[in-house]
């Protein structure tokens, strides 16, 4: 598929992306942007996104579920693409990302991302076989509009990896810093609401988090609590930016004490040997109305 990747790079660099209409700018490693600093969502990746790609990497087991949900799609739009996590290597991928800081962290083997937002996708109706969005919908300025745009441009499935806000408190971190959960929960659109906005027939798949998950969202460290003592790990999780710094520091200090004293292991130590964590991660797959007979 290297030839196909090269062709897509050429198309994107020339601005001749599948179905591209006015409103999007192509930006590669230069990080140029027509957008205001800070990006387009609820978190300022221009100020806080540096090094994000080192901690938030594609986990192959989660990727397998996403790629299976894309079906036989050959052209895939990745919305809120960030540094390119979970983009399938064996298909034509067009990426949309409004943050210059995130676009600049895309590996060179991936096509450059288009500077555009989910709410205003610069593509014709039905211009791609499938659209995907991974752990990004909660950061959009208008999630409903962004989801409707994904449905508009995809003639096949729309695949959304997100978290169920109602189950975030099942993770032990809630016992140390409940303010983190309180800040994060309202950011996530309800799973049922996502399905309703996308329309058609849809399925929801609970996604187990493997013990050695390399995508550094909070639940990825369910068995590795020491990771939260590292400021770089916390910086790669946007929710920490919504909690007062003093509260976060006290929670981390308490966790450090409990790890040193053995208190954490007495309460949660079994998790260190649990192969998977069944928490709040969900995969929503929505087919267009014409394909509803294919979905459960």
What is shown here, in short?
The chain has twelve helices and ten strands.
Can you give a write-up of this model?
Helix content is 31%, strand content 14%. It is an alpha/beta fold. The chain has one domain (2-165, 185-216, 277-289): Vaccinia Virus protein VP39 (Rossmann fold), CATH 3.40.50. Strands 3-2-5-6-10-7 form a six-stranded mixed sheet, with helices on both faces. The chain has a two-stranded antiparallel sheet with strand order 1-4. A two-stranded antiparallel sheet has the order 8-9. Strand 5 (130-134), helix 6 (143-153) and strand 6 (158-163) form a beta-alpha-beta unit. The longest helix has 17 residues, at 245-261. The radius of gyration is 19 Å and the shape is elongated.
| Mean pLDDT over the full residue set | 85
Instruction: Give, in order, the helices and strands.
Output: HEHHHEEHEEHEHHHEEHHHEE
Largest sheet: 6 strands, mixed
List segments where confidence is low: pLDDT < 50 over at least 5 consecutive residues. 1-23, 26-40, 42-49
The rounded Rg comes to 19 Å
Taking strands numbered 1, 2, ... along the chain, how are they ordered across the largest sheet?
3-2-5-6-10-7
| CATH topology group | Rossmann fold
The number of domains: 1
What is the CATH top level name? Alpha Beta
Name the beta content range. 5-15%
Helix content: 25-40%
CATH architecture annotation: 3-Layer(aba) Sandwich
Query: Can you count the beta strands?
Result: 10
Distance between the termini: 32 Å
């Amino acid at each position: 598929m290297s030839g196909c990747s090269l062709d897509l790079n050429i198309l994107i660099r020339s601005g001749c992306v599948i179905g591209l209409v006015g409103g999007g700018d192509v930006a590669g490693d230069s990080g140029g942007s027509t957008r205001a600093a800070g990006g387009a969502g609820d978190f300022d990746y221009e100020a806080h996104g540096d090094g994000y790609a080192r901690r938030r990497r594609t986990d192959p087991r989660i990727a397998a579920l996403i790629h299976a949900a894309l079906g036989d799609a050959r052209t895939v739009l990745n919305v809120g693409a960030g540094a390119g996590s979970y983009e399938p290597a064996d298909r034509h991928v067009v990426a949309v990302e409004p943050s210059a800081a995130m676009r600049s962290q895309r590996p060179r083997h991936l096509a450059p991302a288009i500077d555009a937002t989910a709410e205003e996708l610069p593509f014709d109706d039905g211009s791609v076989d499938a659209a995907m969005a991974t752990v990004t919908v909660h950061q959009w300025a208008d999630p409903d509009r962004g989801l409707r745009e994904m449905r508009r441009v995809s003639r096949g499935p729309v695949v959304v990896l997100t978290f169920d806000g109602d189950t975030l408190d099942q993770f032990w971190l809630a016992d140390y810093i409940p303010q983190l959960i309180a800040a994060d929960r309202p950011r996530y659109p309800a799973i049922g609401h996502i399905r309703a906005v996308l329309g058609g027939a849809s399925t929801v798949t609970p996604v187990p988090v493997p013990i050695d998950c390399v995508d550094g969202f909070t639940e990825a460290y369910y068995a590795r609590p020491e990771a939260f003592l590292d400021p770089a790990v916390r910086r790669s999780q946007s929710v920490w930016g919504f909690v007062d710094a003093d509260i976060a520091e006290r929670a981390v200090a308490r966790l450090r004490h409990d790890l040193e004293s053995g208190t954490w292991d007495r309460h949660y130590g079994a998790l260190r040997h649990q192969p998977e964590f069944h928490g709040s991660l969900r995969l929503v797959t929505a087919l267009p109305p014409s394909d509803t007979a294919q979905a459960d």
